Amino acid sequence: GENVGLHLPTLSVQEGDNSIINCAYSNSASDYFIWYKQESGKGPQFIIDIRSNMDKRQGQRVTVLLNKTVKHLSLQIAATQPGDSAVYFCAESSPNDYKLSFGAGTTVTVRA
Amino acid sequence: SAVISQKPSRDICQRGTSLTIQCQVDSQVTMMFWYRQQPGQSLTLIATANQGSEATYESGFVIDKFPISRPNLTFSTLTVSNMSPEDSSIYLCSVGQGETQYFGPGTRLLVL
């Protein structure tokens, strides 16, 4: 896949506030997107995914928004908790291609 | 999702030696992948491990350096050959379930 990048490498957020993590992608053919969370010393953990036929998808305390017009993906975390401190990666794939391309990652730090 | 384990979890190796990393899944899966994550960086796909045939390598990765085995649908190995300090990374296996990939905990390799 083509490059998938993140706008900001770090994000500091106050506990209890909402977090927004952004991702830009360049491959207009991408049709499937995933957000992963990677805590220190662990492998990436699946958070939520979205297909290109959707604009929004909600999970538990998380919402993913997809804007295909500007090729932008975001992850919103509601009521951020200390356990949300991690590196967050977006990843994308194209039709009939099971390979994922990963963005650079955003480090989220939650302040108590 | 599948439960994925990796061995070893970490290792310190001398340059010029080789290390074989094992990935075990608790259920049969068609797609298995190997990634490298250099310090502070994102994930880069090394290869797709194909059951019963040679792995499919991404640009910049070759079989002589990263030989891969996939003897069955629940197990794969990645060997990092003739190591140099530049090979110090986290090596991750993942399994594909549909278009989604789930990751193992990673193997943290330090080459001296």
Count up the domains of chain A.
1
Overall mean pLDDT of chain B stands at: 96
The low-pLDDT segments of chain B are none
* Low-confidence regions of chain A: none
Radius of gyration of chain B: 13 Å
Known CATH architecture of chain A: Sandwich
The level of helicity of chain B is under 10%
Summed over residues and divided by their number, the pLDDT of chain A gives a mean of: 92
Total beta-strand segments of chain B: 11
Question: Could you spell the SSE succession of chain A in H and E letters?
Answer: EEEEEEEEEEE
Q: What is the helix fraction of residues of chain A, given as a range? A: under 10%
According to CATH, what is the topology of chain A?
Answer: Immunoglobulin-like
Structurally, the number of domains of chain B stands at 1
Could you name the CATH homologous superfamily of chain B? Immunoglobulins
Biggest sheet layout of chain A: 6 strands, mixed
Structural class of chain B: mainly beta
Biggest pleated-sheet summary of chain B: 7 strands, mixed
User: Termini of chain B, distance in Å?
Assistant: 36 Å
User: What is the approximate shape of chain B?
Assistant: globular
Cα radius of gyration of chain A in angstroms? 13 Å
Number of helices, counting only DSSP H or I runs of 4 residues or more of chain B: 0
Tell me what you see in this structure.
- The complex is a heterodimer of chains A (about 110) and B (about 110).
- With about 110 residues, chain A is mostly beta strands.
- Chain A has one domain: Immunoglobulins (Immunoglobulin-like), CATH 2.60.40.
- Chain A is about 0% helix and about 55% strand.
- Chain A is built from no helices and 11 strands.
- The radius of gyration of chain A is 13 Å and the shape is globular.
- The relative contact order of chain A is 0.34.
- With about 110 residues, chain B is mainly β.
- Chain B has strands spanning about 5, 10-15, 20-25, 30-35, 45-50, 55, 70, 75-80, 90-95, 100-105, 105-110.
- In chain B, strands 2, 4, 5, 6, 9, 10 and 11 form a 7-stranded mixed β-sheet that branches. A 4-stranded antiparallel β-sheet of chain B has the order 1-3-8-7, with no helix packed on it.
- In chain B, about 35% of the residues are buried.
- At the A-B interface, strand 4, strand 5, strand 9 and strand 10 of A face strand 5 and strand 10 of B.
